[in-house]
Amino acid sequence: MNVLVINTGSSSLKYQLFDMENQIALAGGVMERIGESQGIMTHKTFSQGDEHKTKKTITIEDHQKAMHLMAELITQKIDAIGHRVVQGGEAFKSATRINENVKNAIQENNPLAPLHNPPNLIGIRLAEDLFPGKPQVAVFDTNFHQTIPEKAYLYALPYEYYTKHKIRKYGFHGTSHKYVAKKTAALMGKNLEELNLITLHLGNGCSICAIKQGICLDTSMGMTPLAGVMMGTRSGDLDPAIFGFLMDNTGMSQKQIDEVLNKKSGLKGICGLNDLRDIHDRSAQGDKLAKLAVEMFAYQIKKYIGAYAAVLGRVDGLVFTAGVGENDEIVRAKALADMSVFGIELDLAKNDVRSSEPHTIHGTNSRVPIWIVPTNEELQIATETCQVLKNSI
Length: 393
Ligand code: ADP
Fold this sequence. Notes:
Blueprint: E1 2-8, E2 13-19, E3 24-32, E4 39-47, E5 50-58, H1 63-73, E6 80-85, E7 96-97, H2 100-108, H3 117-130, E8 136-140, H4 150-153, H5 159-165, H6 174-188, E9 196-202, E10 206-212, E11 215-219, H7 241-250, H8 254-263, H9 266-271, H10 276-284, H11 288-312, E12 317-321, H12 322-327, H13 329-336, H14 348-351, E13 359-360, E14 370-372, H15 377-392
Parallel strand pairs: 1-6, 6-8, 9-12, 12-14
Antiparallel strand pairs: 1-2, 2-3, 3-4, 4-5, 7-8, 9-10, 10-11, 13-14
Helix pairs in contact: 1-3, 6-15, 10-11, 11-13
């Protein structure tokens, strides 16, 4: 079965086509800057280890145009479509075949993810028009975290804020955490149900997850992807009183503060840069704020590892993934320094080796294996799409 995975953002459309029998990607691409005067279309095909890439600057007026361009570029057959949907709320505990009720429920969750769910739904509707009769499945970022217990997902606010407004922790990057946890168990030759893992998805957005015997017990992101460890441009956890303080003392509106917390904070807020490669370069030149940003980031990651070790009781593996997690040996070394009390000991030489394959970086005396496992959210979405369709036949 060939499964097309679609991720529709407010100004982009990402897609990948998988041959699921052979577990390989056949084609993929991205339409960027939708709605701007100059868009960018990138399409790749993969065949027997070779990659063929086409890139064009072209006006992509709207999502409909982007979807048509994608359909023209894909020459292989498409049997089913899996959509990434960010916020499933409490309505969806697992991936789901799309019908009218599912679309309505996604729309009802718009207030919880105003930047993500509306374009996700546009993508679903367009794909239904373009590929009539093909089964469509929604895979939610929040699915994997629906097992988090009440004591961990509730905020200590008046209880009716939860019942009336659905204010609670939902967590994100669920498909990534699930994928790397499963993959790590397979690499260790164990069942996921026997392992307690801490997975660290560190990219532009960052989230950390405590997984006990395959069940997610807690995660660092919250009701929105703003919570948790500081990120490229997002603040992460804050004293909630800071919001009101800024409103009272700076003249900024609620919208402006929101923009600061999402786009001008995190690593960027501290040192003016959000890409860690640039930050390390600056730091090497003696820039104190660049150095401070890295120290803060690593410190916050360390605190979550300690907290989740306490939540899990026993840790059988730490798993680093995504752009920073897979590639940044400096952040990993700082975050994992002096953690032998937790049985965590990094091998600095192994930590410095780059590889696109999964590998371990712990020392011989480390009680806890430390893995680097490249994530593949698209493949996870395609896999769950197949599972849903098998179960619904
Ligand atoms: P996204 O959350 O957008 O999917 P990625 O997982 O692609 O993000 O991670 C992007 C970040 O990863 C970049 O901003 C950069 O800081 C970091 N990164 C990527 N490659 C490297 C590298 N080789 N060394 C250090 N950091 C890297």
